[in-house]
Amino acid sequence: MSIVGDMGEARPAPDRGFRYVISEQTPLSAAAALLGAGALGVLVLGTFAVLTSYGWTPSQELAEGITSSAQAVVLVATAVLGVAAVALGAGIYRRLPSKPSREGAFTGAALGAQALALAGFYWWFRSGDVEVFARNFFEFALLEEFWSHFLRAALNTVILALSGEAIGIAIGLVLAVFAISSHRVVRAPARLYINFFRGTPLLWQLSFFFFGIALGLRINLGPYEVAILVLGLNAGAYSAEIFRAGIQSIDRGQFEAARSLGMSYFKALRLVILPQAVRRVIPPFTNEFVILIKDTSLVAFLGLTFEQQELMSAGREIFQQTFNATGFVATAAGYLVVTLPMIRVVTWLERRMRSGLTGIGA
Amino acid sequence: MSSNGAVVRLEDVQKWFGDLHVLRDVNLAVHPREVLVVIGPSGSGKSTLLRTINLLEEPTEGRVFFEGLELTDVRCDLNAARTQIGMVFQSFNLFPHKTALGNITLALRNVLGLPKEHARARALELLRQVGLEDRADAYPGHLSGGQQQRVAIARALAMRPKLMLFDEVTSALDPELIKEVLDVMRALATEFHMTMVVVTHEMGFAREVGDRVIFMDHGQIVEEASPEDIFERPQHERTRKFLSQVL
Question: Tell me, what's the ipTM?
């Protein structure tokens, strides 16, 4: 409970850390928070325990676990705890004495509601034909023989994305410099390129450059090489727009100061404008890269050889060999392993730049 | 040539921004070791006039000479000329990705081509002259406005210019920081006899340091006289009106 101290007395800055938040809880707000956390905990840990005891593989046993009465008990317990958390948290919220205690009640109610929603969805899901579903999507034993192929596919995805991005950065920088020119005749070709590659689907571009240009003109390029090239051409258009926006966000005075020191247009760009612009565009750029990683899945339509397959085509390969969709589940997991850390990096960078710790803002 | 020993000469300069006539028939000469102060109401064209001298603004008509060289001639090497014309801006315009030292050495290394140690020594010497040698490794974001502006002056001086242009350099500063910048400028004028063109609202500084004062209004040079004459005996009604509002 909070105690209002004497005003005017010199005091050290109050501790607003974890221990302070805990000490501010009332018995009821603590109960609400524990109930909510308990509901979610029972759901996750209980389900994991039940499914593990039945076995994750083969799929038949997994399906039995999902439809078992033990799982039903877990879900009912979750529902009871969740309803209690929501009711208690919402009921006491307005009567609590301090902000941290209200935060505790709110946390409990929110966690309880989330547990209820998940349990509800799970209840609906297990009332369907779980056995057929599990056989088609959760037959994890099937993946064992494709394990090394899958790793190579993940590597191919990363290679495609990285080399595409490298080409994209190079093209994007040149296009951005064209696009900020004061001469319309210099801007025009850059705009044409950018609008063409942003305005047509990547799938169309891949098909056109592979089936149209490479095969049609009998240029000796395989699907893998064409894929890297087209991903680069496409990323170049998007990178150009990001760079252009970054360059134009730099205060005009920077350019004037550089020119007044005798720097040429390109020296000012290279030494003063670009170093600042590049730092500012790192978050949108990483975002672009995450999108590019996922876009490499479209390469699957070009018909890659077994060694060249990336995650999407590897999933398809597994499906064609086994008539089982578990490979696609693994594909999604593969993409998440690559993209989730990147997304975290973007969030971290954005927070860092907003707080101005990098000393970039002019 | 038509420069007659003047550092800067403007001949019949006109400047339009679209339909706006911002400089009208401007003729001007700045002589060696002279401190020319430009005053006038906002929007009178005084900053544009200053920026015309190093061609950050290109005149729509007329000619600009620097040391007898016609800058408005398309064959002129403008970048080489600008290394000899230092400029300091109202908003400092320090490079935020470089330290105070890096701000100064950037052009020394990449424009003048000085070797690294040589550039560094010269930069440190200038930081010492503006009283900031202990802040050499600080980024602009960690300097006060007055300190930033002194670094900006050091950056311009490091090029060893023959002319310095000051564009309302104290207008963005908090009142208690103005003096430290004016002190540097005063020393530059009185001890180093730098040729300077100063656009300012600091009338006390204009009076004390200026050799000649120009009053501008509506893009025209209305009156040109010694500081005593312009502040004690302004000849034109517009000058009197302006001075009565700011003094």
Answer: 0.94
